[in-house]
Structures are given as C-alpha cells and as structure tokens.
Queue: 3 jobs
Job 1
Amino acid sequence: MSSKDRSPDTATRYVLITPARNEVAHIGITIESVVSQTVRPLRWVICVNDSTDGTEAIAQLHAQSHSFITVAGLTIGGRRSFKNKAVAVAKGFEILAALAFDFVGVLDADISVGAHYFEQILAKFGSQPRLGLAAGRHVEWHRNRSRRVLSQPEDIAVGGNQFFRRACFSQIRGYRPLSWGGVDTLAGIMARMHGWETQTFPDIEYSHRREMGTEGVANILQTRWLNGVRDQKLGMDPFFAVLKAVRRLLESPLILGNSAWLLGYVCGYALTDDLEVPVVCRKFHRAEQMQRLRRLF
C-alpha cells in the first residue's frame, strides 16, 4: 500500500483550505498536484466564492472521485479581494475544526506542487518544534513563460501556499480580512509576535501559475501601486521602503514599476483602512525590519 492510500498518522495529519474564485484555468492543475501527493491531506475543503466560470463544477467533479475533497460553495459578495479570501479561509476552517489534525495549509487555486511537497514540509515541522508557519520557495510563471523566483528572507514565509501548525493558526486566529491585501504577510508577523518561528525552505518549491496580485487588476503598474499601499498599511518603515525601492529599481517594468510601487506606498498614508492591521503589529513589523538592516550593515 502506498503512503498516499494510508490513513494519516499523528505526525502527518494535515488539512488544506483553498479559496477559489473564477480559477477555471488553473484549479484542475492544483487539484491534480494534491491528489498526486505521497502524503495526502486528511481533508481538503475547496471554498468556491461567487465563481461564474465553471470553477465549482471542476472541483465537484474531482470531489466525486476523491472522498477527502469537500467543495463548499460560498456567496460572500463584492469584488475579488484578499479580504474575501480571508473570509473564505475562515469558512473553510469552520468546516474542518471538529476534525483531529495537527497542521493546516492554505493553498491558492492557481498553485501546483510536486508529489513530495507536503511530505517534505511535514518533515521540517517534525524536526523544528517551534516552527509555526512554513512555505517552500515561491516560483512564478508569467504569461510569456518566463520564470521568476520570489526573493525573500528565509525566516519569513509569505505567498499563496502557507502551511501552519494548527496551534499557531488558532493562536493568531487565521487570516485577518484586509482591504489592501497582505493577509499572508500579517499572518507571519502575528505568528512571530507570539513566539513562533516562520521559515521559507529553498530546497522545496512550488509553482504559482501567474504573477502575484495580477488577477482582477488592469495592468502591472496597478499591481505595483496596490503593493505599495499594502506595504504601507502593514507598517513598513519609510527608510526600509526607500532601500527597497532602490534595490528593485531595475526590475521589469524598468523604473515605471518601482515608481508605481513607491507612489502607492506614499498614497497609503492618506488612504483609510480603519486600522485593520493592529498598531502593535505595525510596530513589531518595523522593529523586525530595523533588525534586518542592522544585521545587513
């Protein structure tokens, strides 16, 4: 009997939550990659939110063949947003909460993973008892078929494929609905505030089928502007922001993309958000950034 056919034991008991909205082009690949795992999840809830393109039909078709998949049709309303993503994840966790599991993964519907991905992630958690949140290396595939590896410090774990120890996920109360995005970044900040370790493992990777933040926006410049607003709302230190802008000056689209990000960061000070990110989290985030700069210099 293969490992994927056995019932999960206490060391590998994990569940997955996938928020999905109009992902008909990608969700089939996502599902096939999870079905192919050497260690499958105890349960996988695919939360289909206000989709109009057949996403739910594809998910239901796979659920008929695989008993560990549950499809939850949601009507949250409003436009596609990270705020609605957080609501969908919360609904998924409610469905799973009564089950006995030790880990929970939030897997976006436009991501695929290698067959050993979750087996490898679980092994990392097994050897690091204070590890609360982890992810593999994020690899983006753009429309022109170019490949970009997301550059980030190894002691954080952001992106659309976050894997939590259940105790950590419960302690931070999952994702906080944020109008300007950054739900994954804030989850990591809050985890570290509570004493958990967060980590990206460069020896494990997953594929994102498009550039982050590009779905539902007019163009790449709008994406960069929104990213700038998000970073300001999360509490990015102004000096750290300037250094980030300089470091990314030559990223495509040259100059314009980074200028749009910097403009978004400045505009963030004037745009209201009713303090969706708690002040204590913003202060902690800035303190972390200053520690990184001190280590660098």
Job 2
Amino acid sequence: MAPHPQKLTVTRRAWPLARPLMTPHGVQTAAETVVAELSDVESRGRGECVPLARYGESTDSVVAALEAIKGAVFSGLNRDTLQQAMPPGAARNALDCAFWDMDAKRAYRSVAQLAGLGAAAPLLTALSIAFDTPDKMAELAAAHRTRPLIRLELCGDGDIERVRAVRQAAPAARLIVDANESWSEAQLRDYLPMLVDLRVELVEQPLPADADDALARLEHLIPLCADESCRTRADLDRLDGKYQAINIKLGKAGGLTDALALAAEAKRRGLRILVGGAISTSLGIAPALLVAQQAEIVDLDGPLRLAMDRGAGLRYDGGTIHPADPTLWGGPG
C-alpha cells in the first residue's frame, strides 16, 4: 500500500511543432500528449506519453484507459502491480513513469539510484530528418553537416535518391535509416547493396512487421533493427535470424519498468540496442534517457521539433543531450 492515498490526474495537451512535419500518413503540426500525475499529501510524480496510432491508440483511448484505473490507484496500485493491471502501451507508460517519479521523490533518491543504475551521463543523440523530397532532406542535412549521426525517416519509392542526396550533403556523418515498414522484400534486396555503397550503418524496420519472416532468407549486408517487430520481451524469440538490433521505445514497452527489462534481456541475447522516442516534451523523453545509457544508438531529439518545451526541459548542446533536471522528472523534489 502507498503511504498515503494517491490521486491520479490526467491531462491532455497539444504542443505545436516548430514547423509542420511531413510523414508517410500526412502532415503533422502538433504533438498530442497525455500526462498522468500522481499526488498525495507529500509528493507528486508525473509521466508523459504520446498515443501510438500504429497500435490503435488515440488521445481519447489513452485518456479513457487512465481514467478507468483511477480507482485502483487510489486503492493502492503501485509500480509493480501496474505491470499486470494494464497492457503495454502509451497509457501504462505515462503511469509507470509517474510512479517512478513519485517513488524517487518519496525516497529522496533519483530514479537511476532506485533502479540500480549508475548516474546518467550526457549522450550523443541522432539528428532525425523527417521524410521529405530528396532536396529538402539534403538541405537540412547540409545545415547540420557537422553532426556525427543522422537518422533518415523513409517511406518506400525514391528512398535511395533521398539517402544519396543526404550523403552528398553530409559526407562525414554516420547514417542510419528507418524504412517505417514501407519496403517490399524485392526493394530491400535491391536497396541493400546501394545502401552499403552510401555507407549506411543500420536499417530500421525495412519490412512490415507481419511480413518480416522474409528477412531470414536475406543476406544481411547491413545490420537490421526491429522497431514495430519488437514491442516487448515477448517478441524477442521471433527476431532470431532476422534482426541484429532492436529499437526500444517506452511507449511501445509500456513504461520504464518494462523497457529496462527489455534492454537487459536483449543484451543477454547479443542484440544491439537503440533507444528512440516520439515527438514529445522533455517530460516524455527524460525517462528514456536512463534506458539510453545502455544503447549504442540514441534517437531522442523529439523536443527539438516543438515550438516550445516545458520549463526545466532537457538541455541539448549540438548533438549532445544532458540528463534531466530533477525538477522535471526523476529526482527528489
């Protein structure tokens, strides 16, 4: 039982983007976020999530799921019992991160200490370039040509031209690409040798998750990373022979608790780890920084796409992201 009865407050807010973002599904102009806030007479803890349409989530469905569990929270639900009380997804992510924040404040310790992790260190985060025309993607790459790591969001036809344009604009940068489930097996076979020539280091989710058995038949000229094909630990067995890496996102896993467990099991199996996140405020990214301490590749630049972030937001210095201020999330307050 919690030391005092807990109240759960659920809020939703759209955060305008600094500039409209082209996606394979249309143009995005704002990040739709949901915040779960726990409070008692002494402390409060917050967690933020972004609903993932890929898994059938919407802002309405996430808010409804959190509203439905308010009674259990008041009756003493905690971080451990939460894992069985809600399925993986955005709603559990927000509440799980709120419990971690609350527990840290109650214990006068950081979340990193509570989780048995070392102190969080600054990390290199990739610059993500959204899907667009080759010229526009190259223009952004040229403006950031000194960034050491660039990640390209792709969508199918014409993708090699996009990668080639970016490579010419940023010849020294390390490149990784995310196909977002958009390629066919035939496209992947054709693209891989060209991507090798363009010095692409990793390809994320080239085929649809329900069609990725074909990867076991292919020669992996470049390491392949599972994103939509790996949501939780339950998916790891089916990755053998198909992927060499996984992208861990708290929204998919359902919070920091499961994300840390997924990272530990992936490392045990010899899989490389990426940590990514949605476009959100710094409150949504701060917990992922703890998982990212174990990652080879970090893609957590989402707050930089907003017109305005929360107060005490994460500090970005070029390609470096610094640990969260404890007043934002994760420390004694």
Job 3
Amino acid sequence: MTPSSRISATDINKWVWLLFVLPAVVFVLLMIIFPIAYTVHLSLHEWSGSATRPPTPVQFGNYENLLTRDPRFGEAVLRTFQFTGIAVAVELGLGLGIALLINGPFLGHGIVRALVLLPMVATPVAIAMAWLLMFQPTIGLFNGILKTLGLPPQMWIGSQDQALGSLILVDVWQWTPMMVLILLAGLTTLPSEPFEAARVDGASAWQRFFYMTLPLLFPTMIAAVLLRSIDALKTFDIIYTMTRGGPGFATETINIYGYVLAFEYFRLGNASSLLVVFFAIVLGISLFFVQIRKRWGATYE
C-alpha cells in the first residue's frame, strides 16, 4: 500500500462528525419535514380517509374553496387573531407588572416565584375541567360571586357573546406565568449602573421605567410575545375540552375548524389545505417579530 492510498487520522476525523449529526438529521426528516411535506401533498388532493378510495388530485381546488367559498374559515381566522391578540396583550401587561413586583430580593421571594408559576404545571385538560366547574351557571364560583354582589348570573361559556372572552380569561390565568418567567429573566440581566446614575440625577421611578427599563427590556418583550403568540395561535386542548368550538361557532378557531374538517367531516384534503395556510400565517407572524427585534437591536447598537 502506497502512502498516498492510506487513510490518515485527520481524514477520518473529518467525517466522524457525521456519526453524531446523522441521527438528529434523520429525526428531523422523519418527525418534522415529512409530515409537513405529506400535508402539502394531501392538500392538493381530495380524500375522505377511505382505504378503498385513494386520494383524488384536485390541484389547488382545496385552497380556492377555502379562501373564496368557505365563510367559516374567514371567521375562524378572525376569531383566532382576536383570541391571540387579546390574550397575549393582557398576559404581557400582567406579566410585566408581576415581574417588576417580584424582581429583586425580598422576604419569601422564592415561595412567591414558585406560586406564580403553579398554573403552568397543571395539565390543560385538568385546567379546563376546573374552569368548567367555576363557569357552571347554577353552582359555579363566578355566578356565586355575582349573586353575592347582587349582580345577575351569566352564562359564560354557554353564551355566544361571552364564550370567547371566558376562554381568554382561562388562557390569561394559565400563561401569564410564562410571561413573568421570561420578563423576570430579562430584568435580572439589565445593568444596574445606569439606573443608579438616573436615581442620583433625580429621575423618578416612572421616568426610569419608561425611558430606561422599557427600551432595555424591549428585545426580551418581543421574544416573549413571539413565543406566546405562536403558542396561543395553536391553542386547541383548552378550547376543545371546554366548548368544542361552540356554542354555535362562537369559539371555533383555525385549529378547531381543522379538526372538525378532518375528523368529523372526513374532508382531509380541505383540512390539510387549512393547515398549510395556518402554517404560512404562523411563519409570517414569526418572521415579522424577528425582524422587529433585529431592527430594534440594530437601532441600539
């Protein structure tokens, strides 16, 4: 064997990394890319899920029907944005306020922070069942409080006008701790010297908050809103357990409507096209927030 034909240790090391990366690549291909590709493929076909009747190609017919002839889709999109926008805005405000209150050392701060995070520990179905009992019109906690105050009882999730707001209340209760956790982590990384200098110069607490804390914390707030918005857009378990999209279609979001199309109406092609459009919406919102964060960071560099 000539020296040029020998495989050196350096040549071997160049390819060893493949042994470590390949399992992750295969996992991503099987668990992420393949389902997305299959969903896109199925969105171009009409299929009821029957094993005896294969999918029928319809090109972009499902998308045309979804975007031009299906009023329930437009209403579900609007309802999804309404649910997400209100819930995330309230969670951001409450999360910021709570994070500011519990930031820094104080007596029992460890216990307080643990209690704040408790809603995130419970499973969504258990949370939904507990809130169903509290929303119960006759023996529920909320109507009991209203009765004590001399106010008329409400239907809550049984009313088309109140159902979506009731679900937003549940979402705010469950996921405000996530905002608190992210914003509290951001607050702890802020430098203390500028705040001490501003305090010495006579800046009030509100001035320090609006002109220092908010601008410095803005990238963290954008990251928190991005993560929470993506999660809120995909909310399914709480809504399905509590209302199943009802009463009527009052709480039917994109995810709920996609589930109904696929597993109640057995229109898998239409459901797949809806999910592809939904994926594009979520991707677009994500890129929008990422660009805002980048531009804000470039402004303050």
